[in-house]
Structure to design on (374 residues):
């Protein structure tokens, strides 16, 4: 198979979808790998690193899309890339379709095969290609939140861990999954008072057992949430429904209950966000303020730590990418149910319920009779 790896062009996105080690694995398995020049530089990998393992370098993103049967990316194609996607081309990346109707319609029109990292799912319902970036984003949420609690950036002027004689900050984490767990570990480690909320009582029992003494668990409902936001200094939205739009749990009216200078970090913003007033921002302009409340809503948080993020991500994605390359996508998804759940759009048909529901589109069955060459 011909593998194409374009340089990410989303604002301040420095990750790359295939490392030199990954390129070497593809070449060893008999595949051709085309890397856009400088695609790996943001993550610390030079063009020479790729050339040494047998990858071929191309000057432009247009050349990569034109030659590749499978495109490996980190983030969803943006508007400039829409015309480059070809019919029957396999695109393997994070898509988060439910948060963008424009992207969804563009990929339907392209008639490409869109296999989304975020909906590849194991039998235990875990999301193996989302977990590594959720771990990074959860930890970053606290780092960034602590930074923006500073007065120069509009925050309350609160030190997360406090000092002797001064109470630490109150951190509220909404959602007890991977993001929430990692955020709680970081916040607790820095000495904050942490409250975790989730609707799953069994998950809260587990978290109660593993978390340190400065982490409390509370069942999530509207009343409890309204009470909790009144005393929080930093609120982390960490709610995800796989492949679907996140629900708005923190509403605009709740901002009036918060203390001026409270910081909101919505980690789910690339899937629509669980904080109503959050809209996607970039690392270049990461925050905005509404009603005196600081909103940090960067849609590609792990892109700020690309070396760590790229290695964490590709450790998880490469085995699946090799299956797709070695077997072809049809055989690979037939034999691997985890990969089959990653299919979101196939040759113009929406085949993933969360995407269809988000935009009232017809949900089509996955047809795997034969593979059409790219």
């Amino acid at each position: 198979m011909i593998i194409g790896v374009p340089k990410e062009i989303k604002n301040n996105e420095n990750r790359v979808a295939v490392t030199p080690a990954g390129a070497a694995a593809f070449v060893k398995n008999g595949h051709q790998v085309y890397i856009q020049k400088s695609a790996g530089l943001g993550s610390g990998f030079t063009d020479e690193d790729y050339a040494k393992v047998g990858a071929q370098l191309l000057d432009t993103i247009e050349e990569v899309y034109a030659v590749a049967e499978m495109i490996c990316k980190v983030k969803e194609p943006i508007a400039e890339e829409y015309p480059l996607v070809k019919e029957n081309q396999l695109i393997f990346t994070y898509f988060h379709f439910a948060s963008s109707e424009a992207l969804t319609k563009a990929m339907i029109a392209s008639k490409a095969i869109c296999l989304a990292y975020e909906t590849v799912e194991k039998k235990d319902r875990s999301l193996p290609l989302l977990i590594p970036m959720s771990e990074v984003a959860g930890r970053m949420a606290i780092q960034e939140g602590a930074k923006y609690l500073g007065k120069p950036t509009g925050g309350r002027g609160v030190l997360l861990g406090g000092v002797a004689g001064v109470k630490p900050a109150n951190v509220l984490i909404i959602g007890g999954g991977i993001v929430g767990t990692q955020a709680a570990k970081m916040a607790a480690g820095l000495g904050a008072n942490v409250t975790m909320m989730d609707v799953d009582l069994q998950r809260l029992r587990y978290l109660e057992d593993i978390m340190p003494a400065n982490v409390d668990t509370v069942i999530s409902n509207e009343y409890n949430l309204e009470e909790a936001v009144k005393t929080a200094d930093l609120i982390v939205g960490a709610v995800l429904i796989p492949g679907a739009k996140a629900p708005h749990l923190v509403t605009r009216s709740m901002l009036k209950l918060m203390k001026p200078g409270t910081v909101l970090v919505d980690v789910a913003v690339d899937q629509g966000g669980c904080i109503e007033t959050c809209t996607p921002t970039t690392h270049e302009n990461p925050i905005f303020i509404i009603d005196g409340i600081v909103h940090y809503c960067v849609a590609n948080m792990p892109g700020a730590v690309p070396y760590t993020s790229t290695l964490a991500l590709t450790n998880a994605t490469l085995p699946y990418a090799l299956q797709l390359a070695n077997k072809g996508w049809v055989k690979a998804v037939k034999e691997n149910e985890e990969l089959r759940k990653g299919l979101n759009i196939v040759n113009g048909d929406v085949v993933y319920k969360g995407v269809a529901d988000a935009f009232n589109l017809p949900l089509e069955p996955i047809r795997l009779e034969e593979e059409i060459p790219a």
